[in-house]
TrEMBL record:
Keywords: Glycosidase, Hydrolase. PANTHER family: GLUCAN ENDO-1,3-BETA-GLUCOSIDASE BG1-RELATED-RELATED. This is Glycoside hydrolase. GO terms for biological process: carbohydrate metabolic process. Pfam families: Glyco_hydro_17 (PF00332). It comes from Macleaya cordata. Belongs to the glycosyl hydrolase 17 family. GO terms for molecular function: hydrolase activity, hydrolyzing O-glycosyl compounds.
Length: 220
């Protein structure tokens, strides 16, 4: 990265995305709204500290991927995917719940940066992807995951609400960095039927593979 930066001088910023797994998981005994972020010890010396040193020197952001349903134990985070949550207005309640998780993940990274001596916004955090899937099986439909037990229409409503309010929420910052604008990139414009991983990883698109729109989004 240093060589690439030297070649590019200050015209282009260089970084690399981290997944949520780079910071310690929240203990089941901790409240979901109380970030207890620390970078994993096994990553510190050879990966995290050299990376943070580079980012601090060059003014580049720390890039993170934040996909709330991918990183938490459904047995611990009981809630909006439960059929009992169905009803008028409940998709927005569910989306707000997942955005609370989004905020908590970001604050975990901020807390981890603080512990490494990069507090007070010395390194800004950029969200390179976040989103909410609409299906749980390889070719559409609802899988066996508890995330999708509420039914296809309801899960799409949650995805619609999540995408609609994420931009306005990030304008307000998070608990540890209030009022700090974080750039956020949505995952993704189209479904990715070729993508490996969990079945729902293929269904983050706002549009289907054939180009048809799943739902409208209000960014106001």
């Amino acid at each position: 990265m240093n060589k690439q930066y030297n070649d590019l001088t200050d015209r282009i910023k260089i970084s690399t995305p981290l997944s949520t797994s780079a910071v310690l998981s929240i203990d089941n005994d901790n409240d979901i709204g109380m970030p207890a972020g620390s970078f994993k010890p096994e990553l510190l010396e050879n990966t995290i500290r050299p990376l943070l040193g580079f980012l601090g020197e060059t003014g580049s952001p720390l890039m993170v991927n934040v996909n709330p349903i991918s990183n938490f134990d459904p047995e611990y985070l009981k809630g909006p995917w439960n059929p009992d949550y169905k009803g008028p207005g409940q998709p927005r309640v569910a989306a707000e719940y997942y955005i609370c998780i989004f905020d908590t993940i970001l604050d975990r990274f901020v807390e981890a940066l603080n512990k490494e001596g990069y507090g007070s916004g010395r390194i800004r955090v950029l969200v390179t992807e976040t989103g909410f899937p609409t299906d749980g099986e390889d070719h559409g439909g609802i899988g066996t995951s508890p995330f999708f037990s509420v039914g296809e229409k309801y899960i799409k409503e949650i995805a619609k609400e999540y995408h609609s309010i994420i931009t306005s929420r990030v304008l307000n910052g998070t608990n540890l960095r209030p009022g700090v604008l974080s750039q956020v990139y949505l995952r993704s414009l189209f479904d990715e039927k070729w993508r490996a991983g969990e079945a729902y990883d293929q269904h983050y698109g706002i549009f289907r593979n054939d180009g048809t729109k799943k739902y409208d989004i209000n960014f106001n």
